[in-house]
Amino acid sequence: MSAAQKLLQWVGVPLVCVVVIVVVRTATFPSYQTRPPPCNATDEDFIPATEDRLNRLSRAITFRTISYEPGRGTPEELLKFIAFIRDSFPVVHSSPLVTREVVGNYSLLYRVEGSDRSLKPGLLAAHLDVVPVTEEPGWEAEPFSGQRKDGFMYGRGTIDCKHNVMGQMEALEFHLKRGHRPRRTLYLAYGHDEEVLGLYAFSYMEPLLQLKTPMAVHHNSKYDGHTADVTACVIEPSLLLCDGIGFGALVLQTIDDITTCLAQGFTPTVIWTDCDYCGPPGHGKNYWTWYFEAVNEGIEQRTKTRVCVMPGFYNLVSKSPYLTRRGAVGELYDFRFADMEHKVTTYIQPITAETRALVNHVISGYVKPAARFHNTVNAFYKSFMAETVNIGVHVRLDEGHIEEMGYFGQKTPGLEDFVRVVRQLITNATPTARNAGKELRIFLACDLDEVLGVFKAEFGDDKVLNIQAARGDDFKLKLKVKDKDSARSIGDEVFTDILLLSKCDYLVHDESSVAAVAYYFNPNLKSFFVSGDAADHRRLNAKPRFDSQELLRQAAVRKTSNIRDISVGQDWLWSGLETRSMLLLHLLGPDARSPISAGKCFYKNVGQSKCRKEFESLQPDSKRVKDLMNLNLGYQPKNAA
Q1: Which domains does the chain have, with CATH numbers?
Q2: How far apart are CA 333 and CA 515, in angstroms?
Q3: Considering the chain, what is the average pLDDT of its residues?
Q4: Bridge-partner residues for 587, per DSSP?
Q5: Structural element, H or E, at residue 202
Q6: CA-CA distances (angstroms) from residue 154 to 85, 137, 143, 151?
Q7: Would you say 509 and 528 are in contact if contact means Cβ atoms under 8 Å apart?
Q8: Transmembrane stretches, by residue range (predicted)?
Q9: Distance between CA atoms of 492 and 505, rounded to whole angstroms?
């Protein structure tokens, strides 16, 4: 049996169930649409297709508002189209009944105040973007011409979906001109990225929606009343994030989950199973404690109730307790040093002084380095850095990082840019160091031997410090081997770099999770963001407006009542069907790598999960999983011999 047949066999039953349910529900679902009365030219609300109205629609088609992929569109064209809509409908945009908000720079949300507030509001939705134009022959008219010929109008958006946008605007302009007011309040929502899933526009409409963090809740039947009367919150981020995610990113995801638990009033405990920087799963091993002190170890077995934070694979749009800018998406490892709202894209939230203060508060209480790291780092610091002014430099220039930066629309600075910033910093810091009777040293953490060679040649062997670490091809080889010793040695090197960077006086860096963790570990570390400007420098080195307790309270407000319990009844059953169906769709889709990696991680690690019982409903037969994923699971399911 081929791999494709095995895949279809595994997902076939739940997928067929989903299809049957959808078909039956569709066939039996009653229609709530009312049949409109016939439209006559003599009717008071008849809107004729005048030459002006047709010309406006034709002009709307000429804007090349193309969406290519999530986060990559045509912002200049969207802004032109938005301006055209504003100028074309002056009554709409001047009426006291209408409020208009441009959300996320490119989406539009209108509110038309109704006369009867007891009625629930209505929503009319459309979108401003269109799909790309193929190069295939056969176009009867230029796709962005808006050409009118033989009673038809040609072009992208004529039926998907600028005709809706313009039709709704024409109707609203028509009625407002005549002094009409709807009884029911109306919303008109026009997203800008519907053709590429619409996730970003969706997140910007969040005031109308409520996204919930899925958690499985377990009540301990053996609770005797003498153990801890708290709710344990089990955090296992490597259940899905074990392959292809960096050490720094995994730490940031863990901090995000810890904060989520704290904001809910739960007591967190952290478990790392298999990951690129941990080693293969062991019998009850918690690889978090290889790097950090244990966090409330074993509390999930001693409490009356525990909740299990579900892996992010189940949510299309993640909700972080750190998100404060409306429309931002992602979790803590998605935060950027750049403020991308005014530079590249509107969606990823920038790091702020408040972000840094709250993360540092969580680190101080729950992310404490294990004793062996504490001792190693302190010994290095005392030997080489204790009596000097230290400039920490983190340089990432490998191909994978450059590709990732390009995905977010950012450009990776060159090695010469890092050298330039360090040289300028040395010039500025030398008088201070000299007055204190100290030398300047550079601690360099980098991913290529070439970088180390250039820095030593530029600033001198005696001025540039570094630890012995795998770089370039050696690093890739270690990561590829995937044995326990190689994985741990990579993690050791990265974490040691992070801690030594955090002990410096200055940090020269660009976008990276390693730099972010070092920056969060030391709230007094002064940031020099190589790709940044003066505004970025001020933001990244500002003092927070609130103390850590107030910031945690604000996070709690954002997360209150924001849990969806998927551990009981039909909701849990549906989650299992939904997950398998989603996996099939992702495997067949263009972005297959991430879901496949997540699936492999899940079925490799779930046997070691403290929340295995909560996740058992998602486990198919062990042999099928092994055949499908080519995995050695290392555990026996209940129905195994």
Answers
A1: 37-208 (3.40.630.10), 388-532 (3.40.50.11350)
A2: 11
A3: 78
A4: none
A5: helix 199-204
A6: 20, 15, 7, 10
A7: yes
A8: none
A9: 23
Please give the Cα distance from 551 to 138 (Å, whole number): 59
pLDDT tens digits, 54-80: 999 999 999 999 988 777 889 899 999
- Inter-CA distances, 498 with 147, 331, 507, 520, Å: 59, 20, 11, 10
How does DSSP classify residue 319?
Answer: B
Q: Which two tokens stand for residue 489?
A: 């040695």
The CA distances from residue 632 to 118, 149, 245, 596, in Å, are 60, 64, 21, 16
Closest CA to 459 of 424, 496, 412, 432: 424
Pairing of strands 186-191, 122-127: parallel
Cβ atoms of 190 and 107 within 8 Å: the answer is yes
Quick count: other Cβ atoms within 10 Å of Cβ 9? Answer: 14
- Residue carrying structure tokens 């895949």: 7
Q: Which two tokens stand for residue 94?
A: 């001047």
pLDDT at residue 598 is higher than 60? yes
| Residue that has been written with the tokens 């220039």 in this structure | 397
State both tokens at 530.
């190589």
Is 332:302 a contact under the CB 8 Å cutoff? no
Write down the number of H helices and E strands in the chain: 21, 16
Q: List the structure tokens of 15.
A: 């997928």
Q: What are the Cα distances from residue 108, in Å, to 1, 53, 188, 195, 353?
A: 51, 21, 8, 16, 30
Tens of pLDDT, residues 467-484: 987 665 666 655 555 556
Q: Are 241 and 326 in contact (CB under 8 A)?
A: no
pLDDT computed for residue 473 by the predictor: 62
Tokens representing 508? 């020269």
For every residue of 321-343, DSSP letters joined together read: TT--STT-BB-GGG-BSS-TTTT
Query: What is the spatial distance between Cα 258 and Cα 366, in angstroms, rounded to a whole number?
Result: 8
Decide: 65 and 75 in contact? Cβ < 8 Å: no
Instruction: Report which residue type is found at 27.
Output: A
| Three-state secondary structure readout of 93-159 | CCCCCEEEEEECCCEEEEEECCCCCCCCCEEEEEECCECCCCCCCCCCCCCCCCCEECCEECCCCCC
Residues 6+ apart with CB under 8 A from 84: 59, 60, 63
